[in-house]
UniProtKB/TrEMBL annotation:
Gene3D superfamilies named among the record's database cross-references: 3.40.190.290, Winged helix-like DNA-binding domain superfamily/Winged helix DNA-binding domain (1.10.10.10)
Native source organism of the sequence: Castellaniella ginsengisoli
Entry-linked SUPFAM superfamilies: Periplasmic binding protein-like II, Winged helix' DNA-binding domain
GO terms for MF: DNA-binding transcription factor activity; sequence-specific DNA binding
Sorted UniProt keywords: DNA-binding, Transcription, Transcription regulation
Segments forming domain HTH lysR-type: 40-97
Stated name of the protein: LysR family transcriptional regulator
Length: 333
């Protein structure tokens, strides 16, 4: 067979892959099997993960310090070579398709492994580097963790930290987070869990509220009081006043009336300061606000468990493990 036949009937130069395709076809071999599978580059994977996390090509380009065209081209290259649509583009936001979510779940551990490999010869107790993406409740990021973060970064000056602060349940994969610190019961069985400690809570009201309604002397008085309803997730039911009955060894929940519902800890505390009802929050809230006073000190809520969550399929990188150890120290009494 002539070279012209192998080259598909034209005389221009052809790539080595193209020549192998036609040689295989002439030999009666399955052509698709003769073409090597596409292996995405680490750079393209990192770009895709960042676009998926932020839901924006523009924001991803800004964070990665790349031209927007470079980011867009990288994603288009992935989609073309994989033969699948990974992202659904609208005028307002970029979202993951079903194929995109499945691909993202496989990208993250691959990139983690590459990061681990890159630090293979580093001292296991040496300074951290790279980027750590952490989700945590708004109150925690604005409180003890943020206040002491400078000392952690001083020990690891090459480490970059991104904190996503929200009280709602975050989608770790879609948002590109390495880990999440969650306060309260863990309901997502798809995530691995490492206990970090417990958060003590107290009962509080504003001074104006106490002047207007008085201070409850016992749980029996709660029927004539107001509670700020805290629902960080749309599926959450009405909040209740909770306290630990040490004698019975159980948690008692009391339904109360409420005239305001909020979805984050900042609004929760602000509503209390405005005199709109009682709240149950960490004592650090009182230390930061002279407008609040403690109520029902003998009927405290049970401590809230604090856990570090990360995907089951991912071995947490060293920077996640070290950060978790540090958070445990910060939260310790």
């Amino acid at each position: 067979m002539s070279n012209e036949s192998i080259n598909g009937g034209s005389s221009g130069p052809r790539s080595e892959e193209h020549v192998r395709f036609w040689e295989a076809r002439a030999a009666g071999i399955d052509a698709a099997a003769s073409v090597p599978a596409y292996t995405p580059t680490a750079e393209d994977l990192r770009i895709f993960v960042r676009v998926a996390a932020l839901g924006s090509f523009t924001q991803a380009a800004e964070q990665l310090r790349l031209p927007r065209a470079t980011v867009s081209t990288a994603v288009q290259r992935l989609e073309k070579r994989l033969g699948a649509r990974l992202l659904q583009r609208t005028t307002r936001r970029v979202g993951l398709t079903g194929d995109g979510r499945a691909f993202l779940e496989r990208c993250v551990p691959v990139l983690d492994s590459l990061d681990e490999l890159g630090g293979f010869f580093h001292r296991p107790d040496g300074p951290l580097d790279g980027r750590l993406r952490v989700g945590m409740p708004l109150g925690m990021s604005a409180g003890a963790v943020m206040a002491r973060l400078p000392e952690f970064l001083a020990c690891h000056p090459a480490l970059l930290i991104e904190i996503s602060s929200s009280d709602r349940r975050a989608d770790m994969i879609a948002e590109g987070l390495d880990c999440i610190i969650r306060v309260g019961a863990v309901v997502d069985e798809s995530l691995a869990c490492r206990p970090l400690g417990a958060l003590r809570l107290g009962n509080f009201a504003s001074r104006d509220y106490v002047r207007a309604y008085g201070s409850p002397g016992s749980p029996d008085d709660l029927a004539r009081h107001w509670l700020v309803d805290y629902r960080p997730n749309p599926s959450d039911g009405p909040a209740q006043f909770e306290y630990l009955d040490a004698g019975a060894g159980r948690t008692v929940r009391v339904s109360m009336r409420s005239r305001i519902t909020v979805d984050n800890s900042a609004a929760y505390q602000a509503a209390c300061r405005a005199g709109l009802g009682l709240i149950q929050a960490p004592p650090s809230v009182v230390r930061r606000s002279s407008d609040l006073v403690a109520v029902l000190p003998d009927f405290l809520p049970p401590p809230m468990p604090v856990n570090l969550l990360f995907p089951h399929f991912r071995h947490p990188p060293r920077r996640v493990r070290v950060f978790a150890d540090w958070v445990m120290e910060v939260l310790s009494p």
